[in-house]
Amino acid sequence: MELYTISALSKYYERWNMRLRKKDEIHVIKNLNLTISDNEFVCIIGKSGAGKTTLLKMLGGIEKPSTGSILYTNMELYKCPEVKMEEYRRKEIGFIFQDYKLLDEMTIQENILIPQILDGAKRETAESKVEEMTKQLDIYCKKNFYPYELSGGEKQRAAICRALINDPKVILADEPTGNLDSFNTELILNLLIQIKAELKKTIILVTHDKDICKYADRVMEMETGRIKEIHV
Ligand SMILES: Nc1ncnc2c1ncn2[C@@H]1O[C@H](COP(=O)(O)OP(=O)(O)OP(=O)(O)O)[C@@H](O)[C@H]1O
Ligand SMILES: [Mg+2]
Known about the structure:
- With about 230 residues, this protein is of the alpha/beta class.
- The protein has a single domain (about 1-15, about 25-75, about 95-230), classed as 3-Layer(aba) Sandwich (Rossmann fold).
- The protein contains six helices and ten strands, in the order βββαββαβαααβαβββ.
- It has helices spanning about 50-60, 80-90, 110-120, 125-135, 150-165, 180-200, and strands at about 1-15, 20-35, 40-45, 65-70, 75, 95, 170-175, 200-205, 220-225, 225-230.
- The protein has a six-stranded mixed beta sheet, sandwiched between helices.
- Helix 3 packs parallel to helix 5 (about 150-165).
- The longest helix is centred in the C-terminal third of the chain and has 18 residues, at about 180-200.
- The protein starts with a strand and ends with a strand.
- The site of adenosine-5'-triphosphate (ATP) has 13 residues, from strand 1, strand 2 and helix 1.
């Protein structure tokens, strides 16, 4: 089943060109067409500035395309009512970032709880979910620690718990291993493969690192806003 149907997607930013004293349009995504199936692990590879993060943000419902459409199952993102978009962001998507984006002033448990609290879950149920997940991802003993007290690999595992806690269908990962050594890179990628296989998630991962492609079912390459499938 197709989960995403992306058609003629473009994104451009307008900015003032001081030298020419006129508005410039920067085209970041150019007429992009792509379908992503349910339970697929897609890796999108590309150099810095290729438009990977922009595409991921558009898929995540946080960056409105300039033109074109993103169909998620039967819902057209950005064209549906805002309540639907909020629900999509809260329930269907989990984000993982290169720099983890854990809140420093909160413990690991509190960080992981955030999506549940935003979703109005009962504290008790939410806490038992955190317990189960942190055990599975082997950071249970760190749940009352603060992010600065964890290693990079542990922080990313905490961020994965946070991304999974609302049981989303899709994990959007932006260079999730960019700050990790090779041991933790392999650990996190194997974890993502396990999450795909056992929890039936769809994973869309963007990276500039070709070595990561071998973990994916399908590899797409982005270059200056355009995309094509490659075989690695
Ligand atoms: N808000 C913005 N205004 C103007 N230009 C932007 C904006 N956001 C992104 N861009 C431009 O869009 C291009 C693509 O950015 P994007 O962050 O998607 O690249 P990327 O492929 O994720 O790169 P990296 O690997 O370095 O993270 C860049 O040239 C960037 O300068
Ligand atoms: Mg990026």
